[in-house]
């Protein structure tokens, strides 16, 4: 249900690839709440995905940009403001990619060129986006910047690989630039740490389905969907959260505060019983 929370606001949204993308859901909700939008993605993702369909639905323009290229970002920010007729009130960074994950390189066998790419795409691009916006004074006073992250920045989750390092850096950039931009222009910068979600980037994470099942059992409120994530991000873009900045905000159904849940323990116990029965049978066979 729309509340007109973003009426009259202008937004820049990175990372809508297809209708599974978190950024896609955010764009739809932002539009519903009255925002005018500029959408962006890399030229390849624009070709491979269907961002044009989203743009049509949202009455938005699509300006291609590789978020690792400052030149592209400068073009995006200036053209975006021109198109909207003013500065942005909010910016969403919803970008992540690890060539090491894609190529199946494990954390103890990283390719260092890939590692640089992971960090450049998934973390440094956030710095580049904010620095470019600041250079062109592209964000309104009391504007809001949000990037998406994952709990693997704080806790080790088997298989998340070098993306964990990138997310830790991304969250740090939110704090470091949050201080500067807050001091100067009252602009807030936060990261939202989302539950595992079945998207294109999400499916690159090793064993996503089982990880989602585990997180679902561990979270008292269950996993948060992409649509629910969009709802939460809308509040962060709205004027209702003007004094929230430099935070890593968990949107994960309570997962981040859990150690062990009844449901997860139940499955673990079943696994142990299954193992004991199997061992017992093989012991009897070997007698
Ligand atoms: N899916 C999950 O389980 C999950 C959980 C927590 C956080 N996140 C984060 O959410 C964000 C969005 O991912 P998603 O799950 O919606 O998947 P997605 O695949 O739909 O989105 C990732 C986007 O990053 C874009 N991208 C990649 N390289 C880029 C570059 N150089 N320049 C500009 N854009 C580039 C892709 O084109 C794509 O649109 C990512 O930061 C991801 O790490 C995802």
TrEMBL record:
Annotated SUPFAM superfamilies: NAD(P)-binding Rossmann-fold domains
Organism placement in taxonomy: Bacteria, Pseudomonadati, Bacteroidota, Bacteroidia, Bacteroidales
The protein's Enzyme Commission number: 1.3.1.9
Enzyme superclass (EC): oxidoreductase
Pathways per UniProt: Lipid metabolism; fatty acid biosynthesis
Name listed for the protein in its UniProt record: Enoyl-[acyl-carrier-protein] reductase [NADH]
Record key words, sorted: Fatty acid biosynthesis, Fatty acid metabolism, Lipid biosynthesis, Lipid metabolism, NAD, Oxidoreductase
Family: Belongs to the short-chain dehydrogenases/reductases (SDR) family. FabI subfamily.
Domain of life of the organism encoding this protein: Bacteria
PANTHER family in the record: ENOYL-[ACYL-CARRIER-PROTEIN] REDUCTASE, ENOYL-[ACYL-CARRIER-PROTEIN] REDUCTASE [NADH], CHLOROPLASTIC
Catalytic activity: a 2,3-saturated acyl-[ACP] + NAD(+) = a (2E)-enoyl-[ACP] + NADH + H(+)
Pfam families: adh_short_C2
């Amino acid at each position: 249900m729309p509340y007109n929370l973003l009426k009259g606001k202008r937004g820049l949204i990175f990372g809508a690839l297809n209708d599974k993308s978190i950024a896609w859901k955010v764009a739809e909700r932002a539009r519903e709440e009255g925002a005018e939008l500029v959408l962006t993605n890399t030229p390849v993702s624009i070709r491979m995905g269907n961002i044009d369909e989203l743009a049509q639905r949202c009455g938005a323009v699509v300006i291609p940009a590789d978020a690792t290229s400052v030149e592209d970002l400068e073009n995006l920010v200036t053209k975006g403001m021109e198109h909207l007729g003013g500065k942005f009130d909010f910016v969403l960074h919803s970008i992540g990619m690890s060539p090491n994950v894609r190529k199946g390189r494990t954390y103890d066998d990283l390719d260092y060129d890939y590692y640089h790419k992971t960090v450049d795409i998934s973390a440094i691009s956030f710095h580049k986006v904010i620095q470019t916006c600041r250079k062109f004074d592209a964000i309104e006073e009391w504007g809001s910047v949000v990037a998406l992250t994952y709990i693997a920045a704080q806790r080790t989750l088997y298989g998340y690989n070098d993306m964990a390092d990138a997310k830790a850096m991304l969250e740090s950039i939110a704090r470091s630039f949050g201080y500067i931009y807050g001091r100067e222009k009252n602009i807030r910068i936060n990261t939202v740490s989302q539950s595992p979600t079945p998207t294109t980037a999400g499916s690159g994470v090793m064993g996503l389905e089982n990880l989602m099942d585990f997180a679902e059992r561990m979270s008292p409120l269950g996993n948060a969907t992409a649509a629910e994530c969009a709802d939460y991000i809308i509040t962060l873009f709205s004027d209702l959260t003007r004094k929230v900045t430099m935070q890593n905000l968990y949107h994960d159904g309570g997962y981040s505060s859990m150690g062990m849940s009844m449901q997860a323990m139940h499955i673990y116990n079943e696994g142990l019983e299954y193992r004991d029965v199997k061992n017992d049978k093989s012991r009897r066979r070997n007698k």
